[in-house]
Design goal:
CATH superfamily of the largest domain: Vaccinia Virus protein VP39
Helix content: 40-55%
EC number: 2.1.1.297
Pfam families: MTS (PF05175), PrmC_N (PF17827)
Order of helices and strands: HHHHHEEHEHEHEEHEHEE
Catalytic activity: L-glutaminyl-[peptide chain release factor] + S-adenosyl-L-methionine = N(5)-methyl-L-glutaminyl-[peptide chain release factor] + S-adenosyl-L-homocysteine + H(+)
CATH architecture of the largest domain: 3-Layer(aba) Sandwich
Oligomer: single chain
Protein name: Release factor glutamine methyltransferase
Strand order of the largest sheet: 5-4-3-6-7-9-8
Number of helices: 10
Function: Methylates the class 1 translation termination release factors RF1/PrfA and RF2/PrfB on the glutamine residue of the universally conserved GGQ motif.
């Protein structure tokens, strides 16, 4: 009797759970996503077709995807895309995978960007362009500039920008502010590297597949944040905002750095998990 989709799904679920130490719900979800990608069908389709025979070519496609996940490769890299702020972004191993908690950074930025004004926005270290593209689409009158030192990352961001129609977004290769020639902005936003270079998590789980340059930042994880804060004082217009994401235990240190640099209304905001994830300040001089 030929294998069915349900049988193959259960086998994939068990294999993922054992290899990656996932709980049953996580491993089943991963297996469902990979199976649906192999079949080119939505997950809702599976419920009505779980007893369908699993054709050899379908089994081969599913097996190839499953083997990649069993090695720990993130689902987003296997599929080549990740949803962020209800938009589908292309991702490759050249860019950090957009994460749900970064949506807080976007929400806080949008609250400070009037919809009826041609404000200037800078996204530092844009990676896939998820933050910059989202801001550009939600504030079509704004002029958004996104920079990254990686030309490969910028190609991914450019593809996302073009595919999603962010016509008010410009991309520049730059090591933070180096190529901006004194330009000033109403708002600067960044999801920079903020993990300590010796953190053992960098060699574990999904993170080990992501670009280290987008993750690690010096002995305490704050080197790039220091650079961003210091440079922002020369690139913000009066009453401009600087907002950036940081690690779960870095909020107090980030507030101190912002205050020392002369920012006002310094605040940290928690994500849905209650973790202070984003800090910001107003440049009033």
């Amino acid at each position: 009797m030929p294998a069915t989709l349900d049988t193959s799904l259960r086998q994939g679920t068990d294999a993922l759970g054992a290899a990656l130490n996932l709980d049953p719900r996580e491993s089943r979800l991963d297996a469902q996503i990979l199976l649906c990608h192999a079949l080119q069908q939505p997950r809702s389709w599976l419920a009505a077709h779980d007893r369908d025979p699993f054709l050899p070519e379908q089994a081969a496609a599913f097996s190839a995807l499953l083997q990649r996940r069993l090695q720990g490769e993130p689902i987003a890299y296997i599929l080549g895309e990740r949803e962020f702020y209800s938009l589908a972004f292309k991702v490759t191993p050249a860019v950090l995978i957009p994460r749900p908690e970064t949506e807080l950074l976007v929400e806080l930025a949008l609250e400070r960007l009037p919809a009826d004004d041609s404000v200037r926005v800078l996204d530092l270290g844009t990676g896939s362009g998820a933050v910059a593209v989202t801001l550009a689409l939600h504030r079509p009158l704004a002029k958004v500039i996104a920079v990254d030192q990686s030309s490969t990352a910028l190609e991914v961001a450019r593809e996302n920008s073009q595919r999603l129609g962010a016509g008010n977004l410009s991309l520049i290769q730059s090591d933070w502010y180096s190529a901006l020639n004194g330009e000033k902005f109403n708002l600067i936003v960044s999801n920079p590297p903020y993990i300590a270079a010796a953190d053992p998590h960098l060699t574990q789980g999904d993170v080990r597949f992501e670009p280290a340059s987008a993750l690690a930042s010096g002995e305490d994880g704050l080197d790039d944040i220091r650079t961003i804060i210091q440079g922002a004082t020369a690139h913000l217009k009066s009453n401009g905002w600087l907002l950036f994401e940081h690690g779960y235990d870095q909020a107090a240190a980030c507030r101190k750095l912002l205050a020392q640099a002369g920012f006002k209304q310094v605040t940290s905001c928690a994500d849905l998990a209650g973790i202070e994830r984003v800090s910001y300040g107003l440049w009033a001089s």
